[in-house]
Amino acid sequence: MNRHSRFTRLLVAYSAGVSLVALPACSTAQTAAPSSSTATAQSISAAEKAEGAKAHPQLLAEFGGAETGPQASYVEGIGKNISVQSGLSNARGDFTVTLLNSSVNNAFAIPGGYVYTTRQLVALMNNEAELAGVLGHEVGHVAARHAAKRQSQATRNSILGVLGSVLSGVLLGNSQIGQVLQRGLLQGSQLLTLQYSRNQELEADRLGITYLKRAGYDPRAMSTVLRSLAAQNALDARLMGTQNQVPAWASTHPDPASRVTTALNYAGANSTGLTNRDTFLSRISGLTYGDDPRQGIVEGRNFTHPDLRLAFQSPNGFYMLNGTRAVTISGQSGKGQFTTAAYNGDLDAYVRAAFAGLTEANQPQINPGSISRTTVNGIPAAYATSRVNNGSSQVDVTVFAYQFDATHAYHFVTITQAGSANVFSSMYSSMRRISANEASAVRPRKLSVITASAGDTVNSLANRMAYTDAKLDRFLVLNGLTASSRIVAGQKIKLVTY
């Protein structure tokens, strides 16, 4: 993969698939065939397999691709073990379980036996039972046919339609621009999967707990992983500022905090079973944590891409989500994304093509009018703003493009209420080239599992976290600990290091 292929056009569908090798079970948990009580779960149909196979490569493209190596193989084995407890199939080979190279906390499944979790969510977990519980929860959504129950007529026969259509009216209504930007401005890793209702989430929790029991795991793991996810969400909100946190519509699994007690009650507070904590921690050590530098790094308001040798800063009060094909920028007063497209040396034509790409088939094209030229920190740039009807109101859509060399250009596309396009002016003017030294200074973070020594405390270990802010908070959430927790010599602990 060349250095520019991480930023391909948003509207181009990927066609290359990823094959996963079936591996032997990696857990001592039981893999007995599901009991007859799973008979209500419909088997995977040929049509679902076909739809899943069609969606799979496109989902991989949206979520950073599939991780490979021992961590991915381990997650795959656990996922297949828990998936067969659902009654969808007794054959482990009927399930494709993928560890995604994504820095968001997410997991999902689609019909056809396809199950996914991100490396970031796996890093938040503290034992194998939690991993099995999360994957079992996602398989539970499929077994209960939750996606089918939330499909509209227009998307009933398309898995990808289900994944995207729920977003089209959230911010922008069902107007022309809203329909297009569901694939654009709202794109970005975790924003592409279906948001389920509270009742569906609770049902999937119960099914996941049932699968845990059948597989011999401690069913209380569903409650503990929900608690960790709730703590991570709260920490993210504090770090972003309460006005800048990812809104509820951006979460595919909202409100985990309210489900903790319910899940524990269903599992049974005195339940027992396997957790395989030390095995799990040893097997996931070394995972990339946070953004992959090959896709660029978000640090607060700053985005830096060492391979593309560029950097920019979002406006104050906005947050960024780094996706595979675009960086999404969101705030109360506007939405935007940064991406690229094919470039032939004509920057004006590039801007017009970017506007044309925002237009649905059989719809009038957005006319950018005249294109303005400027330079930004020595980089040739071109931009235009067009006012577009958006239901009963109007919005301003801006494309701001930069020529980095004869064959490569990059651009922002933003949307604001009419008359407010200048909210992104500081971001446009912040674009700059970075030096080779600055690029080489960008280092990936990774998850390191260490064995605590005598005298280690939560504070001493937290000081080893590879962050300049909130080291203790990040450490406690990562390990499911509290400030009063005691560290015992020989205990396995997760750290984020360079």
UniProtKB/TrEMBL annotation:
Q: Which UniProt keywords apply?
A: Hydrolase, Metal-binding, Metalloprotease, Protease, Signal, Zinc
Q: Which GO terms describe its biological process?
A: proteolysis involved in protein catabolic process
Recorded GO cellular component terms are: membrane
Q: Name one GO molecular function term.
A: metal ion binding
Instruction: Show the Pfam families listed in the entry.
Output: Peptidase_M48
- Which coenzyme or cofactor does it need? Zn(2+)
Q: Which residues form the signal peptide?
A: 1-24
| Annotated ranges, domain LysM | 448-495
PROSITE patterns linked to this entry: LYSM
Q: What's the name of the protein?
A: Putative Zn-dependent protease
